[in-house]
Design brief:
This is Eukaryotic translation initiation factor 2A. By secondary structure, the chain is an alpha+beta fold. 15% of the residues lie in helices and 37% in strands. Among the domains are: 142 residues, 7 Propeller (Methylamine Dehydrogenase, Chain H); 60 residues. A 4-stranded antiparallel β-sheet has the order 3-2-1-30, with no helix packed on it.
């Protein structure tokens, strides 16, 4: 039996835990009432929840009952994260003295520090400092010109072996099995950037099993599949030399460790355009290449599949957007299942679940087969569903598009321009009406007020468009 879905929701008052869909009576049940916090994050397997309560207090919750099991006092920490199985808490503090050990790995069961080291700076590509595989069998860290490996079961032994990679700037350990590690070496002195894959063994002559080189790369995102056989590489550049994009350019690359793909194959795929795009989404059956449905989620900041693959959640959150904050949950066929708006929403996440908690997926596959979109039929052979949809479309006008955002100064400028244009239009209509009355063309003359209203409306619309 699949585990029940749960959702973490965080706003200005703190975080709460909802029971996930399907909802009784159309509304989610509350599993944990709102509790004050600054941030919250699940472990990768969903067994632990890290809650930052202040600049120096971190609490760890057991996700089976959401009881606090440990609280850590870490003065002035700037970053914290859980290991994939929630065994360790890792914290980073600004060092007050040179070479002060400011990265600490705490064992949650005992509350004791098990490893400490010095790290000069913390960036997105270098945090967390110590990386674990999904099963926590292997641990490694990025150091100057090398990757250092630890015995995850006993970190007190320190570094057990190294892989030398001159110029390495980012590292990503494969999930499970922890058989490989991917590294990124940026451009230098005319030499192109490269992504390399190494095995995690102790071979002193360790050579990369895969390599990909490319120019114009400011940063990369490295994402392993679950079988540790394939790596997705998103290469990003701050400048697009073709001048086609103000936001630079991105390229997607795929590397394999053995020339084949044996990882998990997704059943469902959502193609979506968020960010500067209007939020259109298309849901597809990946294996049959059939579209299941389309919909739209405007102004989405985050999006995520539920762990069972049955639901897709989008959220509009602050501080990225200060208005229209809310959550939308869709079925895997694109139909809207649930929607809730907030005055202010900071975070909305599914609780993760370990893949081994899910058994046979035949029920989901059978459900998908009933939702596939029919092939296009010739004209005159519309299905009853299509005819009904067409009738409802003809009787019900389409919903009005949301108005574009206009800053206050633009609104004022539009209003002033509209008033000036309206006055000008009234004067012209009065002159025209006077002329028509003098010529006796009463048969073709419309009421003066009607002409003024129509012209005024048109002028206001033009003025507002110009202001935008």
């Amino acid at each position: 039996m699949a585990p029940a879905l749960e959702i973490l929701v965080r706003g200005p008052e703190g975080f709460s835990i909802w029971n996930g869909p399907p909802f009784g009576e159309g509304q989610p049940g509350v599993k944990l009432e709102t509790s004050p916090c600054k941030s919250a994050k699940f472990s990768e397997d969903g067994t632990r929840l890290m809650v930052v309560k202040s600049d120096s207090v971190i609490s760890i919750y057991d996700c089976n009952n959401y009881k606090e099991i440990r609280s850590f006092q870490v003065p002035n920490f700037t970053a914290a994260t859980l290991s994939p199985r929630g065994t360790y808490l890792q914290t980073f503090q600004k060092s007050s003295t040179p070479q002060e050990k400011n990265v600490t790995l705490w064992k949650i069961e005992t509350g004791d520090p098990v490893y400490q080291q010095f790290q000069k700076n913390m960036t997105k590509s270098t945090w967390p400092s110590i990386r674990f595989s999904s099963n926590e069998d292997v641990a490694c860290r990025l150091a100057t010109n090398e990757i250092q490996f630890f015995e995850a079961g006993d970190l007190s032994k320190g570094i057990v072996h190294r892989i030398r990679v001159p110029g390495v700037a980012a590292v990503e350990l494969s999930k499970a099995p922890a058989s490989h590690v991917a590294v990124f070496v940026p451009e230098s002195k005319g030499v192109p950037a490269s992504v390399l894959i190494f095995t995690c063994g102790k071979d002193p002559q360790n050579q990369p099993v895969a390599r990909k080189s490319f120019f114009r790369s400011s940063s990369v995102q490295l994402s392993w599949n679950q079988g540790s056989t394939g790596l997705l590489v998103v290469v990003q550049s701050d400048v697009d030399k073709t001048n086609q994009s103000y936001y630079g350019e991105s390229k997607l690359n795929y590397l394999t460790t053995d020339g084949s793909y044996e990882g998990l194959v997704p059943l469902l795929l959502c193609l979506a355009g968020f960010g500067n795009l209007p939020g259109d989404m298309a849901f597809w059956d990946y294996t049959e290449k059939k579209q299941l449905g389309t919909t739209k989620a405007e102004l989405s900041v985050t999006s995520e599949w539920s762990s069972d693959g049955c639901y897709f959640m989008t959220a509009t959150t602050a501080p990225r957007l200060q208005v229209d904050n809310g959550i939308k949950i869709f079925h895997y066929n694109g139909s809207l299942y649930f929607k809730k708006m907030f005055d202010k929403l900071f975070q909305a996440d599914w609780k993760p679940e370990s893949l081994d908690r899910y058994g046979d997926i035949n029920e989901l596959i059978k459900a998908i087969d009933t939702l596939k979109v029919d092939e296009t039929k010739p004209q005159g052979e519309m299905s009853k569903v299509s005819q009904t949809s067409a009738k409802s479309t003809s009787t019900n006008p389409p919903a009005a598009r949301p108005a574009a955002y206009r800053p206050p100064h633009a609104k004022n400028a539009a209003a002033v321009q509209a008033e000036n244009n309206e006055q000008e239009c009234i004067e012209k209509q009065e002159e025209k009406g006077e002329t028509e009355r003098e010529e006796g063309c009463r048969g073709s003359q419309r009421p003066l007020t009607e002409g003024v209203a129509e012209c005024s409306s048109m002028r206001k619309e033009i003025a507002i468009k110009n202001a935008l």
